[in-house]
Amino acid sequence: MGNELKIKMYSFTLDCKDPYKLAEFYAALLGWEVAFSSEEWACVCPTGAKQGAYPCILLQQNPDYIPPVWPEEPDAQQQMAHLDFAVNDLDRAVKYAIQCGAKVADKQFSDDWTVMLDPAGHPFCLCEMKAVMESEYFALL
Questions:
Q1: Residue 140: which pLDDT band, with cuts at 50, 70 and 90?
Q2: Which of 21, 51, 56, 63 has minimal Cβ neighbours within 10 Å of its Cβ?
């Protein structure tokens, strides 16, 4: 195997107060599964995928977590990152995300995507990408 350096994206990690609750939300939204959980951590990944085969969403307990304000406001907790999800039907995807526990953000800036807030207040976007998703170059688990 040698000494070659290997680097692979493993996860996108979000802080929250209740990792399992947030993992259940993302598992429902994406049709994935909660691969493992403890009081401090929970991991959501594609159903049946071997660990590390595809980047997972890792939820980390932070008792001092403060949800970001979106869009930004002076002197308020800022978002540091957000997730984008490709969808083939934006209206249906928004309704489904709401059923899973998300909220539509009060401010929107485009008709091509909808900014949502997960149950812990993290912003994420549902992006209309039907043409891209139907191309031969797009892979979706």
A1: low
A2: 63
